[in-house]
Design a protein that fits this description.
Blueprint lengths: L18 E2 L13 H7 L13 H11 L6 E4 L2 H11 L2 E6 L4 H8 L3 E6 L8 H7 L5 E5 L11 H14 L2 E5 L12 H4 L8 E6 L12 E5 L1 H8 L9 H10 L3 H22 L5 E3 L6 E6 L4 H9 L3 E2 L1 E2 L10 E5 L3 H15 L2
Helix pairs in contact: 2-9, 3-4, 10-12
Amino acid sequence: MDHGGDLLSYEKYYDGKLIDFSSNINPLGPPEGLDEVLRDSFNSVEIYPDIKYRRLKKSISNYLKCREENVLVGNGAVELIDNFIILAKRVLVSIPSFSEYEKRALVHQKEIIRIPYNSDFTIDMKTIGSNIEKDDLIILGNPNNPTGLRLDKIELIVLHNIVKKSGAYLVLDEAFFEFCPWDYDSIELFRQTNYENLGIIRAATKFFGLPGIRLGYGCTSAALAQEISKIELPWSVNAFAEAAGNFIFGEKEYIRKSKEYIEQERQYMLQELSKHSFIKVFPTETNYILIKLLRWDEEYVFNFFLKRGIVIRKCSSFEGLDNSYIRVAIRSREDNKKLLSIFNELEMM
């Protein structure tokens, strides 16, 4: 299992509807009114999207509070990450992290430098500093998948300075940014640098509950945006994704409610899971929780949950983690209670 959300592979093992705790989508679902927007946009399938995505980029620039010439759009965050990788000499990744960083680097025949996180899943700044070279690309999840942690604000500034001094590039994969506390926004943090040697990538997939739409967006320097425009695929954002993007970023009440809901459920889940002695629960700043199993391995626990109608994420496919780790999403209170009840049952085994 390289990715979550693959319910089709497991539906034959349970007689009923599976609850997906393996993918990390906003449990509140998409913003209200989006269905109507998408229906109204149906006629737009008869024409090509604007190849420059001017209206969409304006919506994104208003949302991110950056200039339109800094905005990137693509068919999901992975396409934007792929474009940065194409331009790189080598790719540095901290492990464990999202598998597509390495997969895309391998597709483009780039040398990969793996730098493990520290034992507490904080970044190893010293090793990064001693390995990074001109034209390298370092990709970091912020928050990271599967650990759920972001870089400390000061640490992030220091890292960006190291990267700039080396003539390298830093890409922050912030697909889960909106689920995090309000304490800092990297786009605001680096505005005065004009995003030199930096790319910040986000997605509609997770927070806006739209994995089927495939809309990635982000912010980089105007010069780097121009370089990327030379290699990116034309019309990679379809008409429905464009219509969704022109709507969702103005939904401030939805954003506020979603953040508050996830914060409440995150604290509830961390508190309840931490009561169990057979697991180690890692802190998180987003809508999923990494867990180390102190008794069984991931396969046994995965099947235990599957027989009870829940799909969790096995984590041995993450480079740097063994088969004693699982990851669970944060969902509705009803679903979360069901997950917790199965953990209670597991402890009695």
